[in-house]
Amino acid sequence: MTESNKLPSGRSRIDSLEMRGITKRFPGVLANYKVDFDVKSGEVHALLGVNGAGKSTLMKILYGLYHPDEGEILLNGKPVTISSPKDSIHLGIGMIHQHFMLVQTLTVAENVALGLPSSRGALTDLDRVSKRILELADIYNLKIDPSAYIWQLSVGQQQRVEIIKALYRGAALLILDEPTAVLTPQEVDELFVIMRQMVKDGHALIFISHKLHEVVEISHRVTVLRDGRKIGTRLTSETTKQDLANWMVGREVGFVPDRGKVEIGEIRLKLERVVCGSDRGTPGLRGVSLDVHSGEILGVAGVSGNGQRELAETITGLRKVTGGKVFLEGKEITNLAPGEITDRMLSYIPEERMRDGMIKDFTVAENMILREHHKLPYSRYGFLNLRGISKHADDLIKQFRVKTPSQETHAKNLSGGNIQKVVLAREISRNPHVIIAAQPTRGLDIGATEYVREQLLVERRKGAAIMLISEDLDEILALSDRIAVIYEGQIMDIVPRATATPEKLGLLMAGVHP
Amino acid sequence: MDSTTILIGLASVLVAAAPVVFAVMGETLSERAGVINLSMNGTILLSAMGGFAVSVRTGNLFLGFLTGMLIGAAVALIVAFSSITLKQSQVAVGFVLALVCRDLSYFLGNPFMGLAGPRLPAWPLSGLKEIPVIGTLFFNHDLMTYLSFIVIFVSWFWIFRTRPGLMLQGIGERPAAAYVRGANVNLMRYVYTVLGGALIGLAGPTYSLSVKAGWKGTISGLDGIGWIALAITIFGGWNPLRAAFGAYLFALLQWLGLVLQPSLPNIPSQVLQVAPFPLMILTLLLVNIGDAEWVERTLASLPEPTRRFFAKAFRAMRASPPAALGVPFERD
Ligand SMILES: Nc1ncnc2c1ncn2[C@@H]1O[C@H](COP(=O)(O)OP(=O)(O)OP(=O)(O)O)[C@@H](O)[C@H]1O
Ligand SMILES: [Mg+2]
């Protein structure tokens, strides 16, 4: 083997990888049907499709997490069997999962070292691992603290850990399943710099994203899946965003949110100099004062980890307020139990929906009544009313186009985007007076994103007070009436949408007063 | 009481704690991997009886200890098979085994009741035992006591300092994450459950061949130890060092019950014998009290330095179980 066959990590390249005729069935679902897919050294191959199209399933088959019912995989032209991640790791395949595969109680360094050989044999060599992590972080310009525990990190930071882990392992073929869903635009740019470098070095990359401009920017080829079938593969240079969107959904899409004019009403949610801690022991919120009015969407913009999570959690009663007060429709709710607060018709779409928003082992229908299970029509005299529950679930599945074999399917078996839809449907459909929405369209395909944004505007028209916490400036600018910028636990400024520009917000998000 | 009596008393606490240490370390390893071995109470009794019986018949101490470990491993294998492979409730299976093993030990142990059997000889470590205080405390015991010290250290070192130990933490906390990193989660769970079971099984003969030598059926005084060991595992926050501390605390309470008896003639001796059990439970409650709403509220009303001290102490004591404890792992 010649030197040029080697990657910088010392591993051999994967010149080509081909999946042929892959079929995978789950009870009631045909997740993949006769799919052909291939990727070469030195390219980014994007995989597109709406929520539930079968992208993650195809990639999990490649990584050895699922076994295909039919089909074969060829590596450099030779058939290989991949029956577990052990095999794929051995072949040089790495994967960044849509749902992070991190151990919350371990540190960053421990998570990276987990499962890797060590320079000290059976002993862990965490010092060396930490040093190497810092080196990599330096090269690729990723901020990371190797000694931090995962549970202390924001989702964006956790994503960085996944990327560092993949870089550290130096896989020759890397699957990135929606890596950008939780990143800020700057972080996406940084990731793309890394990906370009990896491609230049001869890695093969598979990239999944619902954001078409990203696909257009980074990929060389695009393959579109629909209902588990491959629709086709094209060179990215020969397509446009609009083409891809239509191709993927099978109809024309194009979203211009109709905000309409809404009378701003009374103050529904009020924060007075709220102070709280964060998981890292540093002050999370440092005196935040905000009002959200009926009929208004207040956008909260900021770089991940600046107090957004704490803000949502103090309002919803999940985190102790150590100073200041929170009022809901004029009544103080500071430090009430979360259940009491939701009962006052406050809806919460948490950022980490898999963890905080649902119960994986409950069925779709059960997840849809988590908030209201103790009320009519879902229960009466302490007994559940199964017919009421089932009808409610059917309605929501239709309205929100949740792709699921049935309402009895366990939530954990839905595709990533469809899990999100279950939570969104539940929270939005209960006619809330106040909605706290954290990253509500993260992980949704373009059609579903359109729908959720529309729904938020509908609720606004109905008079709900909505706090939209998002790292996506386009989303903030498209939906908000006013925009608050949060930085290091403080509100830098609140600007009306009319005078807000991405540049101005960007500066505020960096802690600079323009 | 003069200081030598106290010193010798404390040394005897270390000896008496040895079987509890084995059991707690075994359970800690098993639970770290995600499997609750609830059979512990029965396992200890059965292995105590079995180890004693084999030693009596063969006159060989080593075979006695080996028998205990094999019994523990075998019972653990049943727990592992039913929970990992058959995905049955670990609690139900473990509980039934706890009862069955206990009754089995009384039934099968009948012929050996009250027989004189071999006893593990003391093995002072010359050279070390002469060190003042330390020598008496640590180096004037039998093999099993030394082994208990080693097991504590090795368990701790294994979990927190080695690669497989790191993986063990991953397997109990987030099996899916361990799996995507190439670990064979279910195989590892088998290994740790059976290994932990063998350690639990070692506790039995350590009683019947050393600490409480002999087999006296229902009055052997071993019934209940397994449940306390289970509580100590939780108290220990699945950390071998903390768990060892719990085991020693329990032995210390038992010892205090004995030495205080003469000076407290009004209290029936049974009370002092049983007292360590509720006291241990109380300690457990105290350890986790920091989470309670009313404690938090009381804390908040204290002056700042005091509040911070207690908050810190409670946080240090708090430990949460491995997140995947008791949850079967499914890869598909
Ligand atoms: N373990 C499973 N058991 C049963 N059904 C499953 C399982 N995993 C996936 N599915 C089903 O297979 C289909 C494809 O899911 P997949 O996760 O591949 O979608 P996806 O394209 O990744 O979607 P998203 O963009 O929402 O992540 C979905 O209908 C889903 O419900
Ligand atoms: Mg997916």
Name some characteristics of this structure:
heterodimer, A: 514 residues, alpha/beta, Rossmann fold, 6-stranded mixed beta sheet, B: 332 residues, mainly alpha, ABC transporter involved in vitamin B12 uptake, BtuC, 15 helices, 0% strand, binds adenosine-5'-triphosphate, binds magnesium ion
Description of the molecule:
The complex is a heterodimer of chains A (514) and B (332). Chain A has 514 residues and is an alpha/beta fold. Among the domains of chain A are: 3-101 and 173-249, P-loop containing nucleotide triphosphate hydrolases (Rossmann fold, 3-Layer(aba) Sandwich), CATH 3.40.50.300; 267-345 and 431-509, Rossmann fold. Helices cover 32% and strands 26% of the residues of chain A. Chain A contains 17 helices and 22 strands. In chain A, strands 6-7-8-3-9-10 form a six-stranded mixed sheet, with helices on both faces. Chain A has a six-stranded mixed sheet with strand order 16-19-20-13-21-22, sandwiched between helices. In chain A, strand 9 and strand 10 form a beta hairpin. In chain A, helix 4 packs across helix 5. Chain B has 332 residues and is an all-alpha fold. Chain B folds into two domains: 3-265, ABC transporter involved in vitamin B12 uptake, BtuC; 275-319, no CATH class. Chain B has 15 helices and no strands. Chain B has helices spanning 3-32, 40-58, 61-85, 90-109, 134-138, 143-161, 163-173, 175-180, 185-211, 225-235, 240-260, 269-274, 276-287, 293-301, 304-317. Chain B starts with a helix and ends in a 15-residue tail after the last helix. The complex binds adenosine-5'-triphosphate and magnesium ion. Adenosine-5'-triphosphate binds at residues 26, 29, 31, 49, 51-57, 98, 403-404, 413-418, 445 of chain A.
